[in-house]
Amino acid sequence: MKALVKEAAGPGISYIDVPEPQIENPDDVHLQVAYCGVDLDDVKVYLWNDQAAKDELLRLPAILGHNAAGVVTAVGSAVTGLKPGDRVAIEPIINCQHCDQCQSGRPNLCIHKEIFGKRRGGFAEYAVVPQRCLHLLPNKLSLQEGALLSSFGTAVHAVEVAGPAPGDWAVVIGATPVGMMSALTLKACGAKVVISDVVDGRLEIARQLDGVMVINARKDEPRRFLADLTQGRRADVVVQTMATQVAFEEALGVVCDGGSIVSIAPHSRPVELDIYPQLSQREIRLLGASGRTADTWHRMFDLIESGRVDLGPFVTGIFPMEQYDTAFELMRTGAALNVLVRPGDIATQTNKA
Question: CATH topology for 159-288?
Answer without folding.
Answer: Rossmann fold (3.40.50)
